[in-house]
Amino acid sequence: MTPRVGVDVAAIPRIVEAQKRFGDRFLQKFLTAREIDYCGGSAERWAGRWAAKEAIGKAMPTGVPRPRMRDVEILPSEDGRPHVRVAPATALAGRDIDVSIAHDGHFAVAVAVIPEGLSPERLKRSHGTEAPLAWADGPALTGEGQGGGSELPDGFKLPARPRDGHKGTFGTVVVLAGSQGYTGAAYLTSMGAARSGAGIVRLMVAQSIYPILAEKCSEVIVGPVPEISPGVVGHAALSAVQRGFSGAASGIVGPGIGRDTSTRRLIENLIARVTVPLVLDADALNLLSEHRSILPKLSPDIVLTPHPAEFGRLANLETSAVQKDRRGIASRFAKTWNKVVVLKGAGTVIAAPDGRITLNPIATPALASGGTGDVLAGLIGGLMAQKLPPFEAAVTGVHIHSLAGTDLEASIGQAGVLASDLLPQIPRVMERLRQALAPGSA
Fold this sequence. Notes:
442 residues
């Protein structure tokens, strides 16, 4: 009979976060005492065994009871290869199981092969029972609705990429960003959107900095808008900017746009009139903090992406107060403002007004450099253009962004990673996750 094959991918940082949060109680849910002793505190070995045991379960057909994780033990044989031992009372007792475990950056990947065919009927005859054995209970490490995509945060979802799609299929993103001295913010935001897989990205910038961006952004459609002073877009440009959002699927407003009073009036009027989902970042948030009472009145299809200081200004709180209760405060103001809130920093919090909340456990100092937040704003906006709802786009964008950062930490180091280094890494991470979530790999 045809061998049964199962594949699983485990994100090592998520295993680490669960162990920090729940301690040995978490490990004891899926590892035997001998496995815990063998792993010796190695997160890679923990994640490898989690992935391998999930892969074994996935190799079993529907109707065949799966063993609990602790009923499967994986230790090295004399030649170093993983040897699988299964408890006698389980459906797999007496069967050979081959497992291969590998590590790629911050992921553990496992493939399990059960050479001898399984069927519910054969197992019923050999074991005399059809009672299922559930997987061990424990902290959830799976994303919702992703069939077989383990170790993903709740709300994570990759947009569809149909083979017959074209640039119109994947949406148009419009970006309003940049000012004199901050052309990099406009470049990084628009390219972050492009690297997300959006079909078209249009960038609107002040007329005097247009030549810089037009030359630098060869894959982005750059358009100049009237300015009130060199590099500053003000309220006088409202009609032109509003027309620029025509036909867009999403928009991003704010990175590096400056804090002129006239710019504040432009943004307040613009976001009240634009009907597409928006990401508001950086200076857009700083300007709105001067008139914070309008936030709840704006469309709920807006994602706010503040760092702690920007959040403090928006919420009229000290930054230290924000940092003391990041999860609680993000959730509270997401409801108050009726917006999805992305509170950036180590342990980014994504909160929705309906009470959903996701904590991204991945943190790396490699992302602690100017411009990485601009890339994230572009990434989230690009995912919304591809028809992801605001909360799902925010969760997915943050997760991809953090994985790209940890990949760069591994290849470049904790210091010296540039925001532009994230741009080519984003599609690589997305493809890796897409392959892991493909039906044939689950």
